[in-house]
TrEMBL record, chain A:
Keywords: 4Fe-4S, Cell membrane, Iron, Iron-sulfur, Membrane, Metal-binding, NAD, Oxidoreductase, Quinone, Repeat, Translocase, Ubiquinone. InterPro entries: 4Fe4S_Fe-S-bd, 4Fe4S_Fe_S_CS, NADH_quinone_OxRdtase_chainI. [4Fe-4S] cluster 1 binds at residues 79, 82, 85, 132. Binds 2 [4Fe-4S] clusters per subunit. This is NADH-quinone oxidoreductase subunit I. PROSITE patterns: 4FE4S_FER_1 (PS00198), 4FE4S_FER_2 (PS51379). Residues 67-99, 113-142 form the 4Fe-4S ferredoxin-type domain. The keyword Transmembrane helix does not apply. It is found in: Cell membrane. It comes from Aquisphaera giovannonii. HAMAP family: NDH1_NuoI.
Automatic annotation (TrEMBL), chain B:
Pfam families: NADHdh. Its EC number is 7.1.1.-. Belongs to the complex I subunit 1 family. This is NADH-quinone oxidoreductase subunit H. It is an enzyme of class 7 (translocase). The lineage of its organism: Bacteria, Pseudomonadati, Planctomycetota, Planctomycetia, Isosphaerales. Keywords: Cell membrane, Membrane, NAD, Oxidoreductase, Quinone, Translocase, Transmembrane, Transmembrane helix, Ubiquinone. The keyword Magnesium does not apply. The chain crosses the membrane at residues 6-28, 80-102, 122-143, 164-186, 192-212, 249-272, 284-304, 325-343. It is a multi-pass membrane protein. It comes from Aquisphaera giovannonii. GO terms for biological process: aerobic respiration. InterPro entries: NADH_UbQ_OxRdtase_su1/FPO (IPR001694), NADH_UbQ_OxRdtase_su1_CS (IPR018086).
Amino acid sequence: MRPDDPKLKKLEPPRLTFGDRMYLPQIAAGLLLTAKHMAGVAFGNKAITVQYPEEQHVPSPNYRGVHRLNKDDQGRVKCVACMLCATACPAHCIDIVGTTAPDTWPDREKYPASFVIDELRCIYCGMCEEACPVDAIELTGLYDLTGLTREQMIFDKTKLLSVYDATRDAEPMRYTAPPPKTAATEALPSPIS
Amino acid sequence: MPWELIGTLVKILLVVNIAMGVVAYLIYIERKVAAYAQDRIGPNRAGSPIVPFGLLQPIADGAKMLLKEDVIPGYVSRPVYILAPLIAIVAAIIGFAVVPFGPVGPDQWMNFQIAPNVNIGILYVFAVGSLAVYGVILAGWASNNKYAFLGGLRSSAQLISYEIPLGMSILGMVLIAGSMDLSTIINWQSRHTWGIVVQPLGFLLFLVSGFAETNRLPFDLPESEQELVGGFHTEYSAMKFGMFFLGEYLHVITVSYLIAILFLGGWHIPFLTSPEQTWWPTSLLKMVILMSKVMAMILIIMWVRWTLPRFRYDQLMDLAWKSMIPLSIVNLVATSGIVQLIYSAS
């Protein structure tokens, strides 16, 4: 666009009135604004924060949290150890050791003997999800991912599959409510187990 | 004589301990005010069914300050590094010696002042208050870190610049009352009218330079972590860092006291109190009046902190040298002219 383009819209900064240039009326206006907010919280119960342990936060539908490894209808891991997710991962946090699938699994040649994600290194970009040809790896809406040591934050295959069990009913990326707390989910998404 | 000494020691203990406790709870109040201004609730966890609203938060904060690792980097100038926070806090505390917390007089049974009837009260407060610059500049220098050093220089330049309008803005009030003794100034106000009425410009100048002198927003460049990589206390941790902030909070209390005493009538409420009332319950009542004025002033300082944005450094210096110092000189000259005319006429 040229500088003399007729479509170019020229914006003038608003002219300050005499009152604005005296500063004091504007300072008073600012003080009035914060006073309104303070009174709103103190007397009108208008705080906008979530009181976390009592109220659970509901993330937006496209929130990307802890990974899960999906299972197929026979309860086997869906993953075919093709390494696409590990290749796509910009943070190199996925480590897969693939082996030949047993003869009873006619639908694939390989499956992961070990599938480890370093949740500390992961940047939750969702590219593994995009890359996966069999929809095996997905990011769930679980956000309360904590641990007491670094080792607890390295998720192996068992733990990733157990996240699937905990979030089986929730569609990833269409997450609306926290999963019901059952005995299984109580123990599993929390990495302290 | 020994009774006076014991009384003074008791008063010193009371004032220092109460000031520390009040500072702890002021930090809690400040966090609450901050939260309310930003539509949050603020600290509400450190409590129990008996102590609601997280009122144990100051104790938790204090425990954290004491238990945190106290890092002294290997490259600092060790004695000066340790001395600097001590200077900051001592300079802030000894200003309380001449602050009248309540009525004072030779015929009073109870004197609400550690050193009663010091006739250079304000001069002493200012002399001691300006010692805080040493804490700042020594901390910056001893840290042996260029950011801390620049921060120390910046902060001391700010503190020294604002000392001038701070001192000049009260001179009008001193001239009118004809004394530097704080309780005499209060008594003048209760006989005539509050200082804010006779010295509106002086009040405004004192308020603004008081904000700057206590490093409160909009003048808190000493601790601007986001824009200027922190200030003179970058290398300090745990209780040493806490002492700088304790010192600054004590300054806030001192400045609020000075504003209440010099411009808001001290313990005087029109048509209710007079300097002739010397019975001790009325003295206690007067102390409560003064305390509530001071508390209101502190709340206003906090309110301003969470409203106004920070100044840029050149704007800060422009405000001091190009507007506030000329204005305070004008105020001083006009006041002294008027006072001279009135005194020569009577």
